[in-house]
């Protein structure tokens, strides 16, 4: 007869996500995971696979919880540019916040740490960025159709610029204690939408 799990896999995955997010992939050992999750190594392997598989599952979970609110906020009916401006300012505020900036964004962290040499991580990062770029693009197309964005602006290139800006805000915010750096950059980029 198979034994029932003596732990909640969902809670364990959330705990793994938080540890990877805070420490990064390379700095998190399997022993760290065992200690942080409070479950045995064999249970981790049986439930989630090896450390890399657990990391990819944590990235999936991060995507499922972090991206939907952004997609929802940008897809609301009504004026579109205020939603884009709010998103950029929210990223800048989070990147400047002393408590939040040190963790940064798990997707951005994955892009910097693993994506250059790990195809599975690259696929996760690209999927996240494609979704964000797509919703930014459609929001900017809507803004243009509603007369909020000048006809001479290209919604796709603006969406790509904003994607790169958002990721850059996360990186610079994580490394720089100067909140003015990310806030000034965000405001300058938003001026391009006028």
TrEMBL record:
UniProt name for this protein: Helix-turn-helix domain-containing protein
UniProt xrefs under InterPro entries: Homeodomain-like_sf, HTH_TetR, Tet_transcr_reg_TetR-rel_C_sf, TetR_C
Record key words, sorted: DNA-binding, Transcription, Transcription regulation
DNA-binding region: 29-48
PROSITE patterns: HTH_TETR_2
Keyword Transcription set for record: yes
Keyword DNA-binding: yes
Recorded superkingdom: Bacteria
Record SUPFAM superfamilies: Homeodomain-like (SSF46689), Tetracyclin repressor-like, C-terminal domain (SSF48498)
Domain HTH tetR-type: 6-66
